[in-house]
Amino acid sequence: MLHTPPVAASPIHPLDNPVDLLFSVLENSETGVMVLDASDRAVYMNASARSLLESPLGLVPTWLADVLPTMRSGLDRSGQIVDRVTHEALTLRVRVRALPRPGIVLVELHVAHGTQAGREVAEQLSRSLGLTITDARLLAMLWQGLSNEEIAQQLSVRTGTIKSRLFRLYQRLGVKKRPAAVLRAAEVLAS
Predict the structure, then answer these.
(1) I want to staple 109 with a disulfide (CB 3.0 to 4.6 A). Which of 32, 37, 43, 157 is the partner?
(2) How far apart are CA 81 and CA 96, in angstroms?
(3) For the chain, what is the radius of gyration of the CA atoms?
(4) Which residues are CB-contacts of 60 (< 8 A; sequence separation ≥ 6)?
(5) Domain count of the chain?
(6) Which domain range does residue 140 map to?
(7) How far apart are CA 98 and CA 103, in angstroms?
(8) Is beta strand 90-98 parallel, antiparallel or unpaired with respect to 80-87?
(9) What is the pTM of this model?
(10) In this structure, are 168 and 145 located in the same domain?
């Protein structure tokens, strides 16, 4: 009987530098991401945040910097705070989270669609994907980046109800997970 020595498995995609991978993921994320120091200066701002804030140099605009101290004060009571911030025609859902280092916070920026825009998005999804307006509205909220808890709050139902509705929505769309459903919505809305 021949005995062949085991061959060491080689990774398909070796990670020479995991930090580069993380940076690439953050930089290309559709969610605006900023890390701010104790004086609300941006230590890091990804491409989406620079684009949303129209800040190619990565500076926090005055209209956002004015509301950050109030949001930070809410962090004393909880680990995060979410609020809507409006500047001219732009409305953002801003989530501020405390990071383990004192004074450092993570800020996520999502474009918040108003009720009229949200209704138009839901109607377009309904027509294009053959969904009921209720399912299309739910899909629109996923596309906007809302969490299950946030959707439940907006619809005044329990989070478990949202999970059940999402399961049925995924079946109707022929997908298994949230990212695939959001991708379907993005394909419709991009055309």
Answers:
(1) 32
(2) 5
(3) 21
(4) 34, 36, 40, 41, 42, 45, 53, 68
(5) 2
(6) 115-190
(7) 8
(8) antiparallel
(9) 0.52
(10) yes
Q: Which residues pair with 14 in a beta bridge?
A: none
Same domain, 97 and 82: yes
- What does the pLDDT look like over 66-76, one tens digit per residue? 999 988 888 86
**Three-class HEC string of the chain:** CCCCCCCCCCCCCCCCCHHHHHHHHHHCCCCEEEEECCCCCEEEECHHHHHHCCCCCCCCCHHHHCCHHHHHHHCCCCCEEEEEEEECCEEEEEEEEECCCCCCEEEEEEECCCHHHHHHHHHHHHHHHCCCHHHHHHHHHHHCCCCHHHHHHHHCCCHHHHHHHHHHHHHHHCCCCHHHHHHHHHHHHHC
Looking at the fold, whether 37 and 53 belong to one and the same domain comes out as: yes
CA–CA separation, 109 and 67 (whole Å): 14
Residue-wise pLDDT for 64-103, tens only, equals 999 999 888 888 666 788 888 888 767 788 889 988 888 8
Region 32-54 average pLDDT:
89
For the record, the structure tokens of 3 come out as: 């005995």
The predicted structure's pLDDT at residue 73: 84
> Comparing C-alpha atoms, which of 31, 183, 22 is closest to residue 94?
31
Per DSSP bridges, beta strands 42-45 and 80-87 are unpaired
CA-CA distance, 122 to 138, in Å (whole number)? 8
